[in-house]
């Protein structure tokens, strides 16, 4: 479902890459050190934490905003899907929140069997690719140079509060890019950015827009892009990124505007379109050089870079695609999210704040976020409710773990019984044979 994004990646690759994004690509949720120290500071000073929690409590709709209103029909389907995974002993708590499961169901048009297969592949990929460890283990040191030949980045929000992602693929210098980095490293960087979007950009945008945000509006400037740009190396990178986006981050693209499409690109587009399903194609608008009106309908000029016809320059950062401007950089929103995650981390560790700060710093924000998702529907508003829901969550987790263990145990017993039955069959068969030989029965 995310193929549309892949498409522009393909085009991206065909031209080389340009401006970069923000300063800490290898730390998916941005200011990791300040985030980390923020948590530590909060946990070290209960009074400060209390104040922050009060502040959090006053933000009555925060949980609701982050979680969004659930459609009862979707909720029922997600619940059935969850049960299906659980029955097969395949439900990992941390990635089974409502929105993640729903994304996978939607990707497969609510075909449970296909959705299950895709979701299990996703879990396997997370384990094998060590996605949770990327922020800890991977440093994209070449980022500063890469962003000079690959102009891309998040920049502000659309009129409904979704993050806006921009790529100027016509300006990409692919040869230079591959002198600076490798496909493998670039893919890791891409994954770290995807994780940051899921774990930080969407929650921050949700807080800012006061509504649940879980998808991105993308703009790809294909000025000068045509068939001739699509080299073998470009194809390899495109295919790898397409696979990741489509299989593991489905349903996160809201709309994709391809702009400055000339005749060369339009030919390429005909070929690319054949690889996309109708649902994805419906999200893509291919516009020529007269694209501005369409963009301004969905993005305020203050959030549109000057090079696309808006009035933002981000001069303090050296350009719009270097600023990573957006609610995810708003200190108040960050503080609110940090406080929330820190509080949840602390409660989920039985109030052992120091343990949380030492063992599970910002790097576990993805975990925290998912735990959060599991509890959001019950924890609202007031501090005691938050604590209560955390306890309920812990209790439910324990119960689930117990049930999972019981299920495994039962499976083992069934296997043992089957083996015993097989043995009995053999014995009986031998006995029958013996009787036949001895007694002539
Ligand atoms: Zn700007």
TrEMBL record:
<dbReference type="InterPro" id="IPR051026">
    <property type="entry name" value="PI/PC_transfer"/>
</dbReference>
<dbReference type="InterPro" id="IPR036865">
    <property type="entry name" value="CRAL-TRIO_dom_sf"/>
</dbReference>
<keyword id="KW-0333">Golgi apparatus</keyword>
<dbReference type="InterPro" id="IPR036273">
    <property type="entry name" value="CRAL/TRIO_N_dom_sf"/>
</dbReference>
<dbReference type="GO" id="GO:0000139">
    <property type="term" value="C:Golgi membrane"/>
</dbReference>
<keyword id="KW-0653">Protein transport</keyword>
<dbReference type="GO" id="GO:0015031">
    <property type="term" value="P:protein transport"/>
</dbReference>
<feature type="domain" description="CRAL-TRIO">
    <location>
        <begin position="142"/>
        <end position="316"/>
    </location>
</feature>
<feature type="coiled-coil region">
    <location>
        <begin position="393"/>
        <end position="434"/>
    </location>
</feature>
<dbReference type="GO" id="GO:0005886">
    <property type="term" value="C:plasma membrane"/>
</dbReference>
<dbReference type="InterPro" id="IPR001251">
    <property type="entry name" value="CRAL-TRIO_dom"/>
</dbReference>
<dbReference type="InterPro" id="IPR011074">
    <property type="entry name" value="CRAL/TRIO_N_dom"/>
</dbReference>
<keyword id="KW-0175">Coiled coil</keyword>
<keyword id="KW-0813">Transport</keyword>
<protein>
    <submittedName>
        <fullName>Phosphatidylinositol/phosphatidylcholine transfer protein</fullName>
    </submittedName>
</protein>
<comment type="similarity">
    <text>Belongs to the SFH family.</text>
</comment>
<dbReference type="Pfam" id="PF00650">
    <property type="entry name" value="CRAL_TRIO"/>
</dbReference>
């Amino acid at each position: 479902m995310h193929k549309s994004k892949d498409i522009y990646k393909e085009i991206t690759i065909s031209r080389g890459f340009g401006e970069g994004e923000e300063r800490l690509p290898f730390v998916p949720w941005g200011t990791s050190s300040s985030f980390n120290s923020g948590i530590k500071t909060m946990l070290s000073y209960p009074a400060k934490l209390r104040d922050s929690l009060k502040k959090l409590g006053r933000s009555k709709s925060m949980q609701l905003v982050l979680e969004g209103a659930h459609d009862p029909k979707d909720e029922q389907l997600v619940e059935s899907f969850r049960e299906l995974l659980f029955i097969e002993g395949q439900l990992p708590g941390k990635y089974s929140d409502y929105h993640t499961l729903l994304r996978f169901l939607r990707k497969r048009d609510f075909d449970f069997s296909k959705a299950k297969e895709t979701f299990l592949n996703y879990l396997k990929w997370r384990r094998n690719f060590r996605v949770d460890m990327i922020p800890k283990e991977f440093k994209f040191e070449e980022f500063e140079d890469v962003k000079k030949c690959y102009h891309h980045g998040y920049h502000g929000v659309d009129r409904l509060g979704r993050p806006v992602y921009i790529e100027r693929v016509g300006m990409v210098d692919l040869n230079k890019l591959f002198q600076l980095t490798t496909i493998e490293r670039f893919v890791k960087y891409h994954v770290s950015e995807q994780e940051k979007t899921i774990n930080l950009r969407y929650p921050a945008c949700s807080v800012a827009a006061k509504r649940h945000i879980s998808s991105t509006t993308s703009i790809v400037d294909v000025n000068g892009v045509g068939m001739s740009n699509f080299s073998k190396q470009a194809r390899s990178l495109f295919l790898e990124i397409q696979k990741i986006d489509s299989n593991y981050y489905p349903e996160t693209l809201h709309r994709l505007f391809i702009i400055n499409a000339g005749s060369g690109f339009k030919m390429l587009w005909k070929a690319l379109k054949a690889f996309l399903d109708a649902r994805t194609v419906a999200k893509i608008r291919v516009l020529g050089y007269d694209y501005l009106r369409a963009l301004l309908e969905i993005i305020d000029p203050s959030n549109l870079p000057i090079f696309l016809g808006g009035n933002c320059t981000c001069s303090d950062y050296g350009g719009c695609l270097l600023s990573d401007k957006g609610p995810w950089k708003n200190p108040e929103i960050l503080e609110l999210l940090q406080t929330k995650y820190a509080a949840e981390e602390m409660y989920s560790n039985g109030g052992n704040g120091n343990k949380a700060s030492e063992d599970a710093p910002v790097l576990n924000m993805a975990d925290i976020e998912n735990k959060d998702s599991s509890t959001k529907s019950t924890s609202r508003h007031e501090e005691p409710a938050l604590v209560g829901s955390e306890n309920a969550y812990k209790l439910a987790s324990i119960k689930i773990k117990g049930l999972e263990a019981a299920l495994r145990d039962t499976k083992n017993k069934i296997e043992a019984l089957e083996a015993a039955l097989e043995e009995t069959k053999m014995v009986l068969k031998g006995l029958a044979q013996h009787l036949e030989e001895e007694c002539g029965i």
